């Protein structure tokens, strides 16, 4: 078992003929992901890396029974791409694209909330279930199969943590990058719930950062609903208020969303919080 | 991106929000002409993108054109929290009976725009939220339906507005919401919304924050950007697609990825140092981009050491290494540097740097320790 993606994943790549789309399609195929189709409007009938290209997601789903989509299209077309995937019957949609306007995301999320669709991202590295499926842009080789569930708002910081876990022989069930935007499709609580229900996962690592209150709500959820141990890290203790730290969602606003208050929320419910990324693996190893 | 007060109010006015008569002046003479045209008592307001203009003496009344010229002369060129006043807004002075707050923000937890009103106008809403949260009335807006008339009424009655002003208030609330949505704002605020002695509503001050990610479809708004709010380094960073925030410490950092960049700053602090900046070079950083980033970091005289932390996913370590060396060749700095490269082509990247006799470290913790030691001159 694992969550969200695995051997049954049949992936369609939206924006497959673009530079990023094509590069990562090859990387995902090399990792062993079952990429069954690509979509680029107007490029239907072509092929990329041995994958058939369609004009619409609907055609791709009808022809290939794709059940998962990954989106590499530019920001101004990404909302449309997410809605197209959801409305075409795709149940797991992963949006890598960064820079989508917030008001667009509010509408996309409101629409998807009425459907049985799980959107991951946007502005995220994707999802990987080691040795089964990589649906994202992360370096596959640093991952090892195992029982640690990883959920993070960040990209490279997640690689850093996964790398440290793997080096210590602590493999991962699934690693999910939920994205660094203020409005995202799936938050910490959604993924924690999936890990809690996943028999393969024995522990969870949660990587948060400044901005918003998602970590605080995760802490409350952990206190009430998680039987599996959670180890957390919160980036941005040295971040000044009012400044956006790279991610659109990483900003302390009106004095709210500081690393300090998030760490306090975790510690108050008994979640162990690492002081730096490498310490996460130490804390996880103690319980493994 | 922030809009100035005069830009915000003009935007609101396009959506039917009543604002005072007035105009912008860049010289005292212009201020005099505007005051003469208005032919009544005026308020001269510095247009700088920081809070607390009033307290700093950047907002003052003038009773006639002569005084307007004199006051404008004092305010123009004034330094308010590090920003030089280049423009003043000369508005007719409102006859203020009471002050209301009306604003819209995006509530991240609810994933909806939320409109707030309070009878406690004229002070920062954060302050009201801390001191008297019960005095703020909120309505959550459905993104597909927009602000409904009844929601406007809920706000109006909720703050105890006189009955005969409710209709006008609802129109203003709907105008503000339209302005918010159609300009892709993340905040739109009228503070204060004034009830005048004549019993009319008037938006005396306005504030708008725009979503930078949506500026591609708002050329007219994008052109209003005031370059003064960014340091030269921040402007340079934006031109190169780098995410940069200057801080006060002594250790410059160049990192790929925002989360890792923050974690790198944090670990510097944990090891007894202070980060000089946040800098995310993003994915697939080419030599020119790395060079630009290094120039920006080294332009800060406080920087005593530089820490590179690159975890290669999309970014290739050998490319980063070449970028660092190319930039160093060009800049010729003797600031000590520590590099930690992991991921795609890391051996090649380390080899390139080792040949150039740069300090390297296998882990982030060690790299941070070395950088802190180097900044203290201990290496």
Name the average pLDDT of chain A: 95
Query: CATH architecture of the largest domain in chain A, please?
Result: 3-Layer(aba) Sandwich
The portion of residues assigned to helices of chain B is 25-40%
Low-confidence stretches of chain B: none
Weakly predicted, low-confidence segments of chain A: none
Strand order of the largest sheet of chain A: 3-4-2-1-5-6-7
Percent range of helical residues of chain A? 25-40%
Inertia-based shape of chain B: elongated
By DSSP (H or I, 4+ residues per run), the number of helices of chain A equals: 9
Which band does the percent of strand residues of chain A land in?
15-25%
Would you summarize the structure shown here?
The complex is a heterodimer of chains A (288) and B (379). Chain A has 288 residues and is of the alpha/beta class.
Q: What would you note in describing this structure?
A:
The complex is a heterodimer of chains A (288) and B (379). With 288 residues, chain A is of the alpha/beta class. Chain A has nine helices and 14 strands. Chain A has two domains: 11-120, Rossmann fold (3-Layer(aba) Sandwich), CATH 3.40.50.720; 138-287, Succinyl-CoA synthetase domains (Rossmann fold). In chain A, helix 3 (75-87) packs parallel to helix 4. The radius of gyration of chain A is 18 Å and the shape is globular. In chain B, strands 1, 8, 9, 10, 11, 12 and 13 form a seven-stranded antiparallel sheet that branches. Chains A and B meet through helix 4 and helix 5 of A and helix 9 of B.
